[in-house]
RNA sequence: GCCCCCAUCGUCUAGGGGCCCAGGACGAAGCCCUCUCAAGGCUUAAACUGGAGUUCGAAUCUCCAUGGGGGCACCA
């Protein structure tokens, strides 16, 4: 069992190389939960050492995404902190110094092999069906010669000198000891020829210097996990708790998400990118709840707010197996959290979608509409379809839809006229005053409630599916309702 | 090809030797409620990958097989 009385320092360390996706967001969530649960710190560190792949705006997207989700970090490139800088390109010298330490101690060495030679080497190994490996040419160089060539400015990288004998045992919190023969590990590059570190050095150095206690990362790092442990041990540092989170699989469960899957999701109104979630009408609460439960299980009561997750979270309950993404469940959690919103909160959240649809919004009216559509929304943008008619000057019901099942146009028009007479006789229209007389009419007419209210619904809302009729009538008001009814009767009676 | 990891309903999962002829959630089906659509309530179908062991007893421990996933860069 894990001790949650010691403050944990955890970090999410994305590379600004593309859109922030679910995997990164879920790691950030677990980081955040652990930090908040223990009273520790949650840190954002930007791993931007691959200049070729860095894309402008990607870092901002990460910052925006975390903020939208409500996963506020205590230290990061834009907020600072006592262990900065938090952008790896700004920590160049630190990595260089640490690489030097390793070289001095004989745990690393300069390598002068050119990419061309390395390519050739790999091709030959492949032809011989050997495991791809650095062949150790520069590992065999004497330290004096190596130092001389470095001093002369010869282009080189720094490689880690992996032990060749024995095995490395690394401990993952979810999987236990992971053992690998050292001969299966390679002399990985620590510092590239551009002077910037690779992940293998940078992340280890930063995690140590930033006093990270728990490293949560994707299981794609499992392969190089023993290497990382060796690097840390070469420095003589203590190890954090290592937690390798499972990857997300495409909805079919066959393989991990590809660019194609991302596009496919978009066509269905879903996304694997956090930046899209807001526009698609998803709420941070829903997305968070959904992500949390892919890789973490609770026995019951799985609808949780962030605070509730903090209370219940434990790294001991994380699951090591891959999880297929299930968008239907995102819909479910989103709708569930929408239903938990107050009228005012919901009104505020749906307003941008209505405005975006071209409606001018009266806030007082919106506040009355919110409770009527709340349990009908799966995503926030559904409000346009459900409530747009409240904000229209007039509606355009179709003649076909105005005709009730089992009736013809003339009979339907008669229903309209009867309703018109009833409503115009009432001093004002609210739920109580409207329902009684209309139901009495249903009884008198010998028609079904479905038929009568169906006609009125289409006449007044312009659509076959709408929020409850009486409440809608009350909100729209007598004048407009009668107007719309009149128009519907005209449509029905016209040729 | 080599290395590593994983394995409970279709999906996400609970489970840590007897509380399990396996619990919850999504999805599906049915019923109830009902002015439409939802929401809500109730109900049903649906799983321990296989084989050996250990044990009085295995979904739980071990081994093997199978299946799935990840990785084998001067990317992270």
Description:
The chain has 495 residues and is mainly α. Helices cover 47% and strands 9% of the residues. It has 21 helices and 11 strands. The chain has helices at 22-38, 58-69, 92-104, 115-127, 143-151, 199-209, 225-235, 259-267, 274-277, 284-292, 306-312, 327-339, 343-356, 363-373, 382-387, 399-402, 409-425, 431-445, 449-461, 469-476, 478-493; strands at residues 9-12, 41-44, 108-111, 157-160, 167-172, 176-181, 189-191, 214-218, 241-245, 248-249, 323-324. A 3-stranded antiparallel beta sheet has the order 3-4-7. The chain has a two-stranded parallel sheet with strand order 1-2. Helix 17 runs antiparallel to helix 21 and helix 18 (431-445) packs across helix 20 (469-476). The longest helix is centred in the first third of the chain and has 17 residues, at 22-38. The protein is elongated and about 105 Å long. It starts with 8 loop residues before the first strand and ends with a helix. The model has no long low-confidence stretch (mean pLDDT 94). The structure holds one RNA strand of 76 nucleotides.
Helices and strands, with pairings:
Elements: E1 9-12, H1 22-38, E2 41-44, H2 58-69, H3 92-104, E3 108-111, H4 115-127, H5 143-151, E4 157-160, E5 167-172, E6 176-181, E7 189-191, H6 199-209, E8 214-218, H7 225-235, E9 241-245, E10 248-249, H8 259-267, H9 274-277, H10 284-292, H11 306-312, E11 323-324, H12 327-339, H13 343-356, H14 363-373, H15 382-387, H16 399-402, H17 409-425, H18 431-445, H19 449-461, H20 469-476, H21 478-493
Parallel strand pairs: 1-2, 8-9, 10-11
Antiparallel strand pairs: 3-4, 4-7, 5-6
The protein binds one RNA strand of 76 nucleotides through helix 4, strand 6, helix 6, strand 11 and helix 12.
């Amino acid at each position: 069992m894990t001790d949650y009385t010691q403050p944990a320092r955890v970090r999410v360390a994305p590379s600004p190389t593309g859109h922030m996706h679910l995997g990164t967001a879920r790691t950030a969530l677990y980081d955040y939960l652990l930090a908040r649960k223990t009273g520790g710190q949650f840190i954002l560190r930007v791993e931007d050492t691959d200049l070729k792949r860095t894309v402008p705006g990607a870092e901002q997207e990460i910052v925006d995404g975390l903020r939208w989700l409500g996963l506020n970090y205590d230290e990061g490139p834009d907020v600072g902190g006592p262990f900065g800088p938090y952008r790896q390109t700004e920590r160049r010298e630190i990595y260089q110094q640490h690489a030097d330490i390793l070289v001095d101690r004989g745990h690393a060495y300069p390598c002068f092999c050119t990419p061309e030679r390395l390519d050739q080497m790999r091709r030959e190994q492949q032809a011989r069906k050997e495991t791809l490996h650095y062949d150790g040419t520069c590992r065999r160089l004497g330290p004096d010669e190596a130092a001389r060539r470095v001093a002369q400015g010869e282009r080189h990288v720094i490689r880690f000198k992996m032990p060749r004998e024995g095995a490395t045992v690394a401990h993952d919190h979810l999987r236990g000891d992971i053992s690998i023969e050292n001969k299966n590990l390679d002399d990985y590059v620590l510092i590239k020829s551009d002077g910037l570190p690779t992940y293998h050095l940078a992340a280890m150095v930063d995690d140590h210097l930033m006093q990270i206690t728990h490293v949560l990362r994707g299981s794609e790092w499992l392969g190089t996990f023993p290497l990382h442990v060796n690097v840390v041990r070469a420095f003589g540092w203590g190890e954090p708790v290592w937690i390798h989170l499972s990857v997300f699989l495409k909805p079919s469960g066959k393989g991990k998400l590809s660019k194609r899957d991302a596009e496919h999701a978009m066509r269905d109104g879903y996304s694997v990118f956090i930046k899209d979630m807001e526009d698609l009408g998803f709420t941070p609460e829903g997305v968070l709840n959904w992500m949390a439960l892919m890789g973490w299980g609770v026995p019951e009561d799985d609808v949780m707010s962030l605070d509730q997750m903090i209370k219940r979270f434990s790294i001991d309950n994380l699951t090591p197996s891959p999880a297929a993404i299930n968008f239907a469940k995102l819909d479910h959690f989103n709708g569930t959290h929408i239903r938990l919103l107050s009228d005012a909160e919901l009104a505020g959240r749906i307003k941008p979608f209505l405005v975006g649809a071209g409606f001018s919004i009266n806030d007082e009216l919106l506040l009355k509409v919110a409770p009527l559509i709340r349990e009908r929304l799966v995503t926030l943008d559904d409000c346009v379809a459900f409530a747009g008619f409240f904000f229209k000057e007039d509606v355009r019901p179709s003649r076909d839809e105005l005709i009730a099942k089992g009736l013809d146009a003339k009979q339907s028009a008669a229903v309209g006229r009867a309703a018109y007479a009833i409503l115009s006789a009432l001093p004002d229209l609210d739920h109580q005053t409207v329902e009684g007389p209309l139901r009495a009419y249903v009884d008198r007419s010998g028609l079904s409630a479905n038929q009568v209210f169906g006609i009125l619904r289409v006449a007044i809302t312009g659509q076959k599916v709408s929020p409850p009729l009486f409440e809608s009538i009350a909100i729209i008001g007598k004048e407009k309702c009668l107007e719309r009814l009149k128009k519907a009767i005209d449509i029905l009676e016209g040729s």
